[in-house]
Amino acid sequence: MLTMLMRQFALARSTRHSAARAVTAACLLAVAQPAQADDRFTKFGDIMQFALPLAAMTCAVRQGRAGETALGYAVQAAAVHGSKAILRDARLNQRPDGSGHGFPSGHSASAMFGAANLAQFCYKDNPAMQFATYSLALAVGLSRIDADRHTPLQVAAGLAVGFFVNGLRVKISDDFFSISYTWRF
């Protein structure tokens, strides 16, 4: 796996895709950490929850969409943390390890937000990279289940929040404000 990631990093470097370089570097960092095998997968999820949105923001800055992307990330985070606060001690909000506030998975929502944003705007003409970014987000969700921090339902809900928030568009100017929802596959 490390060899495959190093090849991907070299390809990303040669094609000048800064977002792909950021994601690949984070993957390398996650798997290169000295830890037990099960801890590496957890560490991978912990890193990728930030690496995918950061890669999306890097691309958004280059495309002049930084404000919209930052607002989308904030909406995603508010939806996750708002749901957890509203649900409080509800069974749905309980984590498998017995602690509370697990619905939906924030790691999964954050990673999927980044992956969906990259797929929709940065890799819209590259199905292989779209598949790769969505696969990374799914792996983050699986790492949360593996670490016994979330149930499959909590992860699925987090992935859905991250995915669907990308369709929200907010336009703000001095004399105009609009909210719309569109999604392009």
Q: Which descriptors apply to this entry?
A:
globular, mainly alpha, 185 residues, single chain, two-stranded antiparallel ribbon, 2 strands
Describe the structure.
There is one protein chain. The protein is mainly alpha-helical. It has one domain. The chain contains seven helices and two strands; from the N terminus they run αααααααββ. A two-stranded antiparallel sheet has the order 1-2. Strand 1 and strand 2 form a beta hairpin. Helix 1 runs antiparallel to helix 2, helix 4 runs antiparallel to helix 5 and helix 4 runs antiparallel to helix 7. The protein is globular and about 50 Å long. The chain starts with a helix and ends with a strand. The N terminus is likely disordered.
Question: What secondary-structure arrangement, pairings included, does this model have?
Answer:
Blueprint: H1 2-15, H2 18-32, H3 37-63, H4 66-87, H5 106-122, H6 127-146, H7 152-165, E1 168-173, E2 176-181
Antiparallel strand pairs: 1-2
* Proportion of helical residues: 55-70%
- How many separate structural domains? 1
| Mean pLDDT level | 84
Net shape = globular
- Flag low-confidence runs: 1-6, 12-16
By oligomeric state, this entry counts as single chain
Q: How many beta strands in the DSSP annotation?
A: 2
**Proportion in β-strands:** 5-15%
- CA gyration radius, whole angstroms: 17 Å
**How is the main sheet built?**
2 strands, antiparallel
Gap between N and C termini: 29 Å
